[in-house]
Each structure stands twice: as C-alpha cells, then as structure tokens.
Design a protein that fits this description.
Residues 24-149 form the Bulb-type lectin domain. The protein has 243 residues and is mostly beta strands. The chain has one helix at 3-17; strands at residues 26-27, 32-34, 39-40, 46-51, 60-65, 73-76, 88-93, 96-101, 108-112, 125-128, 134-137, 143-146, 162-164, 170-171, 173-178, 181-192, 198-203, 206-210, 241-242. Bound molecules: 2-acetamido-2-deoxy-beta-D-glucopyranose (NAG) (6 copies).
Length: 243
C-alpha cells in the first residue's frame, strides 16, 4: 500500500470509529477555542467562534448559522468587551465559561458567565446545540448557564421572551449599537407584566410600539404572527415564569 493510500485508509477508519472527531460541539476545562477555531453543533446547524464586523478589527465570540453563506450572527458573548486582535481564548475555568485576552503576560478576563463555581468544576462542559444554544453544565451535569437566557438582538425558536419571577432574569432583546458594533444599542423589546401583560418596543426609555395582550393565538397588535404557518407561538404564565 502506498503512503497516501495508507493515509486515506487510516482517515476512513478514523471516520468510522470517531465520526465526530473532525468537528466538536463540546468544550471541556482542558480544552479551549482560540481565535480561528470553532465549535460546531452535532447536526452542523450552528457554529461558535470568533468574528469581526464590516469596518472593525475588533473580535467577538459569537454564534452564527453554519449553512447560511453570509455570516448571520445570532448571539454575541463579549458585546461590550472586544478582543483587539487574534489573541482571544474561550475556555472553562472554575466552572465558568471565560473569554481571555491571551496577548499579555497574564491572561486578562474580558467576559465570564459569572455563575458561582461548583465542586467538580473540572468535570464541567459547554455544548453548542442544534437550536443555537450554548449550554454550560456543572460537574454534576446540571445546566448552570445557557446563552438562551442572555439573548442579544436575535430571537431564535425555543428562546423565551419575558422573565423569570424568582431570579429576576429578564429575557429581553436589545439592538446592536451599529452594524459593526454589537454592544447594546438604543432599542429593546421586553415584556411589561403590569396591568395587561404586553411587549413594548422601546427607544431608550420611550415606548414606541406595543404588542397588545396575547389572545390565545397571537399578540393582538401583531397580526403578522398568524401569517407564517412555519411558526407556532405560545405564551406561558406560571408561578415561576412569564414568557
Ligand atoms: C450576501 O452578502 C453580499 C455582500 O454583502 C450581498 O451582496 C448579498 O446580497 C448577500 N446575500 C444575501 C442572501 O443576503
Ligand atoms: C495582541 O495585542 C497584545 C497587546 O494588547 C499583544 O501583546 C499581543 O502580542 C497581540 N497578539 C497578537 C496575536 O497579535
Ligand atoms: C492563558 O490561558 C490559556 C488557556 O487556558 C492557557 O493555556 C495559558 O497557559 C494561559 N496563560 C497564562 C500566562 O496564564
Ligand atoms: C461578571 O462579574 C464582573 C465582576 O462582578 C463584572 O464586571 C462583569 O460585567 C460580569 N460579567 C458578565 C458577563 O455579567
Ligand atoms: C475532577 O477532579 C476529581 C477530584 O480531584 C477527580 O476525581 C475527577 O476524576 C476529575 N474529573 C475529570 C473529568 O478530570
Ligand atoms: C462527570 O461528567 C460525566 C459526563 O461528562 C458524567 O457521566 C459523570 O457522572 C460526572 N461526574 C460526576 C461526579 O458527576
């Protein structure tokens, strides 16, 4: 067997026995995603990696669709703290996902999930799912943080918009500052539970649109919600959450 045939043969064996060895959807504490590297969800729907925007050299960690050729960002981690060159490193430390700027003698933390560290933090992991959610699990495999709880400017199927009553977690959409700056901009969409609960689009603190209440099928002020048979909507209100 020639050397190149041997190589192909070994690759084939590797693919049969380790079908996911060419793309990885999970990060563990002994690994990291450096600028230029990616996580790809198991069904290859979404990618997590570093990106920059049109006229900017700043680097951000984000999630985008794997199969849409024009990179379409759906979530950004370090919205307000970009890495200024390619020395960013995303890794897991003490049970938290952290973004480090490795371009210094000491790594500087630019962004962190900030969930309290757990025992067995060395057994934690983060997985990018096929719905575009980055899910951090603690040492006992319980979800300790997920990107769907921290929406940026994009609503994806299975995300919630509203809030969690006990923890005060707010699921709000906020616009980007501009096409090349994903920091929170002027506009937001949030649920106001006072009176008849409804969503408000705001510019700063000024309300510029309201959705009206849920009528069991759609928000009454958003007739287009019933115009897309591909989507089904639901509105949930219970002791813990309204969304
Ligand atoms: C993709 O991006 C290019 C360049 O920005 C643009 O001309 C084109 O219309 C985009 N295509 C789609 C499908 O959005
Ligand atoms: C990134 O910038 C830092 C200074 O902020 C520098 O020390 C480092 O060498 C740079 N890294 C690369 C890969 O250019
Ligand atoms: C910075 O973090 C990376 C990834 O965890 C690690 O490999 C590297 O040793 C760290 N560098 C310093 C100076 O601590
Ligand atoms: C994490 O906590 C630090 C210190 O309290 C804070 O400066 C930082 O903004 C927090 N990061 C996130 C992503 O919430
Ligand atoms: C984590 O640390 C504990 C105790 O130090 C050890 O028993 C366990 O094997 C480690 N797990 C991993 C995945 O390294
Ligand atoms: C560590 O994680 C693995 C899966 O990654 C799990 O099977 C195991 O139960 C975990 N260990 C502990 C002590 O929870």
């Amino acid at each position: 067997m020639r050397k190149d045939e041997m190589f192909l043969y070994l690759c084939l064996i590797a693919l049969i026995f380790f079908p996911s060895c060419n793309s990885v959807d999970t990060l563990t504490p002994i690994q990291s995603v450096r600028d230029g590297e990616t996580l790809i969800s198991a069904g290859e729907k979404f990618v997590l990696g570093f990106f920059s925007l049109a006229n900017s050299k700043n680097r951000y960690v984000g999630i985008w669709y794997n199969q849409i050729p024009n990179q379409t960002i759906v979530w950004t981690a370090n919205r307000e703290n970009p890495v200024h060159n390619s020395s960013g490193i995303l890794t897991i430390k003490g049970g938290n996902l952290v973004l480090l700027d490795g371009g210094h003698n000491n790594n500087i933390t630019l962004w962190s999930t900030n969930v309290s560290s757990s025992t067995m933090a060395n057994n934690s992991s983060a997985t990018l799912t096929d719905s575009g959610n980055l899910v951090l699990k603690d040492g006992q495999q319980r979800t300790s943080w997920e990107s769907f709880d921290y929406p940026t400017n994009t609503y994806l199927p299975r995300m919630k918009l509203g809030f969690k009553k006990r923890t005060g977690l707010n699921w709000i959409l906020t616009s980007w500052n501009s096409a090349d700056d994903p920091a929170p901009g002027e506009f937001s969409l949030s649920l106001d539970p006072r009176g008849v609960p409804q969503y408000f689009l705001k510019m700063g603190s000024e309300r510029i649109w309201r959705s009206g209440p849920w009528n069991d099928q759609r928000l009454i002020g958003a007739p287009l919600m019933s115009g897309y048979s591909e989507f089904s909507w639901s509105y949930v209100t219970n002791d813990d959450e309204i969304y």
